[in-house]
Q: What sequence folds into this?
């Protein structure tokens, strides 16, 4: 099993990652994410909303062991990433 950082890097290269609170929220409700990842410094109020909706949608949620700056770097972005969703592969 790959570690979370490797999964995020791989899925980013495959264009299977959705970034940002509002976009992830929409995707939880309309899509079918495989996994949701939140940075360890993600604001608590927004984290609760994401956790609640992930639970309703029966989506696994993991906390990234580092902050949003590092999560952004892992995604290859020049900005912070507090939350991201990983799209399911087509074959599932």
A:
């Amino acid at each position: 099993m790959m570690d979370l950082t490797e999964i995020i890097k791989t899925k980013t290269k495959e264009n299977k990652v959705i970034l940002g609170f509002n976009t992830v929220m929409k995707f939880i409700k309309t899509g079918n994410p495989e996994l949701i990842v939140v940075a360890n410094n993600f604001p608590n109020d927004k984290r609760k909303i994401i956790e609640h909706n992930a639970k309703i949608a029966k989506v696994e949620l993991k906390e990234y062991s580092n902050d949003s700056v590092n999560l952004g770097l892992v995604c290859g972005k020049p900005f912070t990433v507090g939350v991201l969703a990983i799209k399911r592969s087509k074959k599932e």
